[in-house]
Amino acid sequence: MAEKYRVVAIVLSDQLVGHMYGKVRVPEFDEIEIVERPKPTVPPQISTYPMIAGT
């Protein structure tokens, strides 16, 4: 979903989730939908921060 909607995906977990018992089904590679999104045509703009004196 992160690739399709172009948003950041962050997985947060804690001890409760880590100690839960349950089955996880990992889909086969053939079952995963691959989303082709358009590639950018311009180079990325790199933002730099000014140097702080004394550091």
3D structure, described in words:
Helix content is 15%, strand content 0%. The chain has two helices and no strands. The model has no long low-confidence stretch (mean pLDDT 77). The protein has helices spanning 2-5, 15-18. The termini are far apart. It has a domain at 2-31. It is low in regular secondary structure and 55 residues long.
Topology:
Layout: H1 2-5, H2 15-18
Distance between the termini: 41 Å
Over all CA atoms, what is the radius of gyration?
20 Å
Low-confidence stretches: none
List the helices and strands in order. HH
Put simply, the count of helices is: 2
Please estimate the helix content.
Answer: 10-25%
DSSP strand count? 0
Largest sheet: none
What is the structural class? little secondary structure
Average pLDDT, all residues:
77
Quaternary: single chain
Strand content: under 5%
Q: Outline, from the CA principal axes? A: flat
